[in-house]
């Protein structure tokens, strides 16, 4: 009897995982704000255009820590089937906060850092980076830089593009930028190196 029950529950668990956790072929957008600290970055990510009262499996970035998930009303996301990374939506948005390690003493490329939902394609990313600790370097991303504001104590970066998980690059030297009609471009002695790093990541995404 015990063996039969175990087989039944395993089959049921597989069924609900395959049939109910994923809204296949669904697309969504994400809006991200990064606050840069001394040895890490704090990430605030909102995933939008989701189906209400639906169940999703969250794909957690390998280096993310201390992550939380909330709804628009600040309530904690409801876990399903006692699984840490399977949640039910309430409304069309999820708000996820987490930390990522960062060594700003050297050039650091961060890959696969955004939270994803299994079966959901993120087709547009809006990214804002707030930098107040190390202003002698530069933030780059695998999507176009749409704006940059340098104030007395804080730098603000704005990126926007059609992708699902753009690479991030912290470059610990100053890099010049040039703006045309639609976006900023990077130039200077380090441009080929930066472009190669970003392109390698984007090629990896396309192959996956």
Textual characterization of the structure:
The protein has about 210 residues and is an alpha+beta fold. Helices cover about 15% and strands about 45% of the residues. The chain has helices at about 1-20, 190-205; strands spanning about 25-35, 40-50, 55-60, 65-70, 80, 85-90, 95-100, 110, 115, 120-130, 140, 145-150, 155-160, 170, 175-180, 185. The strands form four sheets. A seven-stranded mixed β-sheet has the order 4-7-2-1-10-13-12, with no helix packed on it.
Q: Report strand %.
A: 35-45%
Order of helices and strands: HEEEEEEEEEEEEEEEEH
The number of distinct β-strands equals 16
Helix residue percentage: 10-25%
How many strands, which pairing sense, and closed or not: the largest β-sheet? 7 strands, mixed
Q: Reading side by side through the largest sheet, how are the strands ordered?
A: 4-7-2-1-10-13-12
Shape: globular
- Which structural class should the secondary elements be placed in? alpha+beta
Q: Helix segment count?
A: 2
What's the N-to-C terminus distance? 43 Å
Mean pLDDT: 79
Ranges where pLDDT stays below 50 over 5 or more residues in a row are: 1-22
What is the alpha-carbon Rg in Å? 20 Å
């Amino acid at each position: 009897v015990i063996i039969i029950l175990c087989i039944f529950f395993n089959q049921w668990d597989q069924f609900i995982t395959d049939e109910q956790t994923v809204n296949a072929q669904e697309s969504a957008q994400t809006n991200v704000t990064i606050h840069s600290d001394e040895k890490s970055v704090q990430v605030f990510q909102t995933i939008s255009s989701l189906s209400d009262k639906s169940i999703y499996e969250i794909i957690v970035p390998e280096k993310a820590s201390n992550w939380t998930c909330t709804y628009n009303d600040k309530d904690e996301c409801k876990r399903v089937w006692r699984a840490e990374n399977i949640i039910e939506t309430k409304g069309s948005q999820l708000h996820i906060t987490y930390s990522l390690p960062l060594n700003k003493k050297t050039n650091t490329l961060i890959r696969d850092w955004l939270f994803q939902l299994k079966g959901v394609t993120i087709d547009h990313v809006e990214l804002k980076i707030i930098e107040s600790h190390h202003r002698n370097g530069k933030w780059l991303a695998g999507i176009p830089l749409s704006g940059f504001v340098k104030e007395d104590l804080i730098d603000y970066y704005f990126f926007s593009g059609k992708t699902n998980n753009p690479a991030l690059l912290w470059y610990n030297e100053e890099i010049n930028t040039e703006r045309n009609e639609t976006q900023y471009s990077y130039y200077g002695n380090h441009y080929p190196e930066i472009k190669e790093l970003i392109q390698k990541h984007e090629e990896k995404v396309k192959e996956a």
